[in-house]
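I am writing to request your help with a piece of structural work I have in hand. Thank you for your consideration; the sequence and its tokens are set out here:
=====
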Amino acid sequence: MKALVLAGGSGTRLRPITHTSAKQLVPVANKPVLFYGLEAIAAAGIREIGMVVGDTQAEIEAAVGDGTAFGLEVTYLRQRAPLGLAHAVLIARDYLGGDDFVMYLGDNFIVGGIDDLVERFARDRPAAQIMLTRVGDPRQFGVAELDARGRVIRLEEKPRVPKSDLALVGVYLFTPEVHEAVAELKPSWRGELEITDAIQWLIEDGRRVESSVISGYWKDTGDVTDMLEVNRLVLESVEPRLDGRVDGASELIGRVVVEPGAAVERSRIVGPAIIGAGARILDSYVGPFTSIAAGCTVSGSEIEYSIVLPRSSISGVSRIEASLIGHDVEVTPAPATPRAHRLVLGDHSKVQISS
């Protein structure tokens, strides 16, 4: 069995972060979301991966390399535009050959891995096997409709009027039969080749499609709220570790990780939290569910329930929370007078200001 990992897409809901960074490489607990998926694939015993990439190929390739660090063999497959999940299968046809494969969306996060899913598929070998979970707003996802016996009878991509609250989780398993379905597809109203349409084709053609409703944790890390929630979840399971330097005037409470080269001085850190390699925390408070990446500086400030990407600095700011701060950012207080807000914002930003 091979894996097809989708690591293209523009990540519009994470702008302006994704104007300069691949959405799959935005970190949770100081590790890119994509890496959690690669580790899950390797743990399931799969070694060969086709990585579908787009405009951020150079960045993805620099981070993942040839896959050796994960125990994988990675082949990069260029997708000229994000034309749908089924289009990714189409361009990977030669790479996949006659092998069964798992398709894994690189910005999805699933607790518990995919070992059981892969084992079940290898045993039963339906034409397709999908995972479903109940969501609050199914209009944002592919949606499955089940009959009274729990069998999949219809799938629809981001329906305006959903038939159920069961969304497709971003992990699919296929036999080579799916290539017949993909070859028959026409672009949807969104202008994309939809994997839901391919699976629907298999159902209507009498092929066996299996599903399971998962009760574990799953997130499509498509926006800031989801990123912060996944960061919270991962930090919940960290074990405290002190590899950096903490002075006698500082206090660490709970599960706190201080990575090599980091320094904490005259500060209070309440876990779960992680302080990245080479970061400096000075005269500050770092609250629960916060990830401070490598090379950052937090000085005379308070921050909680946030993600700070590498080499950023926060100085003299009284309180930051529920924030995602990008690479090489400087956060400082505004001048005391005149009373005004001075902003330098990327395209498509969203800002909330207390007047």
User: Anything to note?
Assistant: Helices lie at 33-43, 57-64, 85-91, 93-96, 115-124, 178-183, 195-204, 224-236.
